Amino acid sequence: MKKNQFVKLKTPFENDGESWDIYPRPQMARDSYLSLCGEWELFRRKEKDQKDAFVGKIKVPFPPESRLSGIEQTIEARESFTYKKTFSVSSDFLNEKTLLHFGAVDQVASVTFNGVLLGEHTGGYLPFSFDVTPCIRVGENTLVVRVWDPLDTEIPYGKQRKKRGGMWYTPISGIWQNVWLESVPQNAFSALRLTPSLQDITLEVEGGENEKTLVIETPSGALKHTFVGGKTTVRIENPQLWSPESPHLYHFTLTDGKDTVRSYFALRTIGVTNVNGKKYLALNGKPYFFHGLLDQGYFSDGIYLPASPEGFRYDIRTMKSLGFNTLRKHIKIESDIFYYECDKQGMIVFQDMVNSGKYSFLLDTALPTVGMKKGISHRATHRRKQLFERSCEETLRLLYNHPCVCYYTIFNEGWGQYDADRLYEACKGIDPSRIFDSTSGWFEEKKSDVKSEHVYFKKLDLKESERPLVLSEFGGYSLKITDHSFNLGNTYGYRFFHDEEAFTSALEALYTEEIVPMIERGLCASILTQVSDVEDETNGLLTYDRQVLKIDAERMRKISTAVFTAFVKKTTG
Fold this sequence. Notes:
This protein is an alpha+beta fold. The chain contains seven helices and 34 strands. β18 and β19 (246-247) form a beta hairpin.
């Protein structure tokens, strides 16, 4: 068989009747919303001649490399893409101020609105906005977004690689999350910060006017609270705590006279507790086993984005049905809709920061795999440090209000790792309410909330630790379903099976013979590789097209029960 025989795979979400024309920010929702997703014109410009050549009509927000975009092309070296959208705005839509929002554009974007250059944004994973009040008009408007994506490794880039293959995937570029307009009062709320305890919620507000009214929906009725200033704390009677087993959300509205936003919070804490001399991660003050999977967030038809929001829901719902309670979102930041669905369905998220810096197979994979896991660090230029640390800070602020997000990984397997202790202190200072895994897998330094291990290729033999013990990657067992595989020529995984029975039995043995015994040594979290196949990788529980669940569901639920039973026995006697 030829090497690299690629197949176009279709997920079940492509024709489900749902689109991305939904309000993309559930934690700060308003009615004044105009989606700019849908059909745009796309042009290619070569650096040498600076002329735009029409490529075709592209469907935003799918990246141009994806089939769902209608383009299936990428930006080459010394080129840029220019997106153009002409649309109409009614006088009824406009308020005192109008904001233009982008969910994410990879890697560098320059934005022009009605001929006015608004500015430039660098970084492919985080949202940004512009005030377009001076240049928007009733009637026809034109938005132009010029995009460069040299896959600059100084900028956080994730698992994208120009020469894709193995554990590196097809690179994407351009607009890959929602684009939308929002019309607001002059003194509109600009940000909310929600800090829960087990009995109250502290709300910090940026923007708005003087007196504010908060109305919280509770099981016993509406709780109305008025306050002045930018911060208040509200005690919740008969609190219902958030957990994967009972993901209760408190919905509320916040009004200041002119502006009203809808949002929600949950009452939950994440921390560390001591039981019989061992430290464990604790959810809501009690030891908790985080039974999870690696989640790359790739889809066969949209690449970086599922065909519809149901793609996110399906992955979360399916993994929960197998007994899992945690997803480690690996080297990627998703649309806010993903985290909202995790909040709502009760799926804990371990969130990775997006890596930067060049990858070295020798330093970052080969040597650590044979046991050299200390004393190695990369050098980082001043520019890379600035971009990575800004990305970390923006990620922490972006996801702060989501109860599902309990844990952050700063560096994964040494990829771009530098100054890990300093960055632990910096991140912890921004968000002291979460767990931080400074160096997931290896190259451990002094400061981290957990002892984090990756184990492939050999039997688990974890050592007891003074910190909570986390197996942040393991498994990688591969079962290739040919009719649902992206690459018929190449297959990537760590141990290979040829039928569902052998695959399920191997996973049963892995959990019962290796994970459960490690619970005796203090293990409190395990992250299996992985939710789904991704391109060459066929080590998912789901195929890349989400059409086939490879494992016997009932047997996986029994495995999950065995893990939880062993943990409860260990931590409660």
